[in-house]
Amino acid sequence: MRRIIVGFDGSAFATDALRWAVVEARRHGADLVALTVLDDQPMPLQASTRQPPLDPRPDVLTGLRDAVQAAADGFPVVFRYTVGSAAAQLIAASRGADLLVVGSRGHGRLTNALLGSVSRACLLHAPGPVAVIRPGATGATDGRVVVGVDGSEPSRQAVRVAATEARLRRAALDTVHAVHWDRIGTELITPTDEQLTEWGTHLVHRQLADLHQDLADAGVAARPVIVPGHPGDVLVDHSRTADLLVLGSRGHNPLASLLLGSTSDYCAHHATCPVMVVRSEGKTPEETAAVGVAAEGTAAEGTAAEGTAAEGTAAEETAPDRTAAERPASAAW
Predict the structure, then answer these.
(1) Binning pLDDT at 50, 70 and 90, where does residue 20 land?
(2) pTM higher than 0.90 for the full model?
């Protein structure tokens, strides 16, 4: 991992996300960019005078820049800003990064949508891994990385990423598979919990065997954990004592044919630890192309889009050189 983007709007949620991103960048030796997205909608008229208010952005940017430096605690962070849709701009910026970090929510003063909807849009459309940081999700844990597995290719990639994260944290790695059978009333035979657990155990061991070399390269031993229950509930429960929960962006459910998207969305909103959602290597969501085109068009029109700021603008502030200083339906994993 060489470059991390973190969305920053000055809220407590975004500050937690920035602090987590700083620690993650330190672990990986990665560059870190804090990206602020200013609302491109005109400011409303003041009720008392009916006159347009003074543009607050210079003061706002100064405050945000200071807040980034304070939260970075000496780590070199590049501060950049752009104008437009928060979701579109973050997604576009993430195309050149190895990880996009967002808070679970934010405030709408600088962006045209709550970060809750922005974080969800990033989970759905960002082409690479996305980490969602909930308030208080960076506290003390038991030194454990949890990864959801279901035998799909996205979950295989999730295991690879989780193994690297566990190695960097010197943490244990738990591969969690939740088994549950939805009874629809027409089954001739209903499997018992013991049978479901047996099938789940076989699936997890087979997936870990396929990933033996990846785990060996990371120097991490994975512990299979097979638990009866709804995937979202099981994973959220395991997140309570975890450093990190890693999920594939889309998975499949051999028993209920449910896409992992709803489970990752549920965990991003309810897990008590940071949640990282990764995609299959070399795969991007179908929607990314359309969103990316729209985002690029918006960035091109602005004077402060990342990497295109005109000389002399305040689009970029660089810290000192580093060398110097709602519950888803039941499913099985």
Answers:
(1) very high
(2) no
